[in-house]
Amino acid sequence: MALLTLGITLFSFQAYNQNVMLSEKESALEQSSSLFIHLADNYLKSKSSNTGSNAFIDRLKGLTDSEYTFFRPANTTLSPAPRQGAPLDQEALTSLTGVVDIVSSTLPENESRQLRDQLREVTPSKLATAFTVSTGETEYLTRILTFNISSQQAIITIIQKPLPTLLASLGSLPILLILALALASSLLAMVIAYLLGRNITAPVNRLIGAAQAVQQGGQHWVGMAYLSKSLSLERSDELGHLAAAFNRMVRVLEEKEQMQNLLGKVVSREIADELLQNEIKLGGEERQVTVLFMDIRNFTGLSEGHSPERVLNLLNTCLNEASQIIEQHHGVVDKYIGDSVMALFGAPLKRSDDTHNAVSAALAIEASLDALNSKLKQSDFKPIKVGMGISTGNVVAGNMGSLNRLNYTVIGDNVNIASRLEGLTKQYGTPVLVNEATKKIADRFLYRVVDRVQVRGKRQFTTLYQPLCDRENVSQSTNTLLQKHQTAITLYSNQEWGKAQNAFEELSRLEPDTSLYKLYIQRCLQFLDSPPDKEWDGVFHQNHPDSSSLSSSKRPLNDDSV
What is the pLDDT of residues 416-440, one digit of tens each? Predict the structure, then answer.
């Protein structure tokens, strides 16, 4: 509508410009012609003062914005006109069809030549009035006059005014008036369009804003109630129905998100997603999972002398630190058991590096104890130690419990082994113990063999390993320690008790805080007094009260732990 109004206005302006302003253009050119005649007379009267023609031309150009060009027939002499500045007669017009010389011009040379060529096509009807001529890229309002330079001779004078300049000088006021009217009409049309469209665009924009807020995620759910309330449009058309449907959708999504957030506080986020996305039913599937058990050592002694509230804060601080590290390594906290944590790597989501992540998480928890103990010291708590057992193997993962209450977890022999390994860390004084399957898969770490045992409730023997560090970050001192450790283990396996005792004593001096070597020194002293059977391979039976119980297994204890 605004464009139509502007088009009609411009068309009206064009008609006005052609019919009303034409006489004003010719009047402006007539003024330039009169000025030229006056200056020409003065020039001729003062010619004896040696004023050159160039000075005359410069003065003309300086007083007006017109262009002046002077022509002279090359093969004939043009007779003077009856009066100075008279229009060109028929005889003079005929001379323009022949060879014409350019006496002088304020136009560029190429444009003055174009003008000369165009004048040859001038008809007699144009001699008494102004007409338009285009030279170069400019259109001029043109008039032809006679300039008597003496009583016997005249030359042809062309006076031109650029049309753009004429329009700017003569038509500025009408143009501004018309443009103002056009602008006012356009604004009026836009206001009317706005008032008509607001009834539609405002609800649509509110719908778009609410949909974008929903798309941005869970942090916007607090604002969803306000958004849905603001979209309760009191209208019965299609937009009203759409807003009502959107409100219903938002309420359903809000309820689902609240349920997911609640589940995320009870179980891990991954398990919550698994429960919400799939059909909830009892049962599970067999898969390979790496299970990690972590326990805070002597938690009862640590909490002694503190109020229950402070003990709970201590427990939450420790478990929160461990849980964050586990989740950073893509593990899932399955459950908290008192002061213990059970974590899964490979369920419900499986990754190609689950076992590596489990070992890396355990080492990270071990490394975080110094900073954690510094924080606990400020609250007057004693330093804590942890023990972690890691086992990799097949388990059954799924929903377990009753039809009314179930829990996503894993069960199987591998879970029991991880729990037993965590318990054995107390006996060997090592922060982390892993089984052989874990060591084989997570091969980017450096391990040392700890012992071979028959864990409680198991008939098969289990080799225990302690992960030390990433192979890429191993130091020379660690390599040296591992070589000495392997030498001592080999002597112990070969029943060379005296040499083994000396080797473990040297290791104990290198690592005085490692109780593992004190345990082996004690065994060597006992076997010196009471040697075992020659077929003994060093397997320790966890379920036997004697820590030096023997076994007839043929597998040697020493292992290439590097």
Answer: 999 999 999 999 999 999 999 999 9
